[in-house]
Write a structure and sequence with these properties.
Elements (H helix, E strand, L loop, with lengths): L5 E8 L3 H9 L20 E2 L7 E10 L3 H12 L5 E3 L1 E7 L10 E6 L3 H14 L14 E6 L10 E3 L2 H7 L1 E3 L1 E10 L2 E11 L2
Length: 200
Amino acid sequence: MARKGTLRLFVAIFPPAQVAEALVRTLDAFTVPRASEGWPPLPTHRAVDASKVHLTLVFIGESPAKELRTIGESVERSCAGLGGFVLTPTALVTIPPDVPRSPPALIAATTDAPPALLEIQRRLAIRLARPRKPGRVEHFLPHLTLCRFPVGTRGGPWQRTLSGTEQAETTFSVSRVDLVASVLTQAGAVYEVVGGARLG
């Protein structure tokens, strides 16, 4: 995964395979107009491969490969003393949310925010996050990306609360946090887990 001695890193939670597949299927409701229920049709989009569906806790970015061990230790310390928890997806939303001022980039499944999740993210952000703009505070919205739109897509916003059945099918227990290296290729991103920590 090393490229010129660097790694593109992020810290994430991956749901079980069957949960990821069920989440991707929730997009089907958008593929046909449902005007009577207030659902606009989904425009041309590229669904995320279920094996890559994840919740990003913090994006670290390009980092020297020689720092991987230190970064891994920071992930472990951020999770120390915290037990596992349950995550429940609650709705499908367009991100960014302020359409039409900002064109939609993707649709994601937002989740609830258990205290343990927020505490892990807070610790990781303190240790590892790199502000994208000086003085800017990044707001953490727990979500799992399910599809992406082509650049220039217009319309929306698209939003739908998941049904009770859908929530039951996509709720999952979290017992570990992964440190992931990502390489961008023409076929999409390739992920490799290079570290992490077990909760509890």
